[in-house]
Amino acid sequence: MHEMALMESLVDVLAKEAKKHNIQQVKKVKLIVGQLSHALPDALQFAFSVLRQYPPFSSEAELEIEERETRGRCQSCSAEFAVEDNYLFICPQCGGLAVDIVQGRELQIDYFEGD
Ligand SMILES: [Zn+2]
User: Which residues take part in binding Zn(2+) (predicted)?
Assistant: First the structure.
């Protein structure tokens, strides 16, 4: 499962950060998950429910997920817009096809808490 591998690498980062801040037990984690990361929140929750049984987590640790839509910016007219279809990047204002992705690729830890 794709999400299990993603979650494991996020937990690696988290474990290092927790150590740095002298946190023994992580109780809450918030993730930012962009649509384009192709990570399903339900599958991430499941992976987390397995991983939280091990340090640095408290066994009741919670995972909060904030999903972010995909947004693009047109290179010709600079319009910014939500991308409905992740495979179709067309500027709704001028029809331009040169579109930069400005949001949606995120898969990161926003913050975590513990003691
Ligand atoms: Zn445009």
Answer: 74, 77, 91, 94
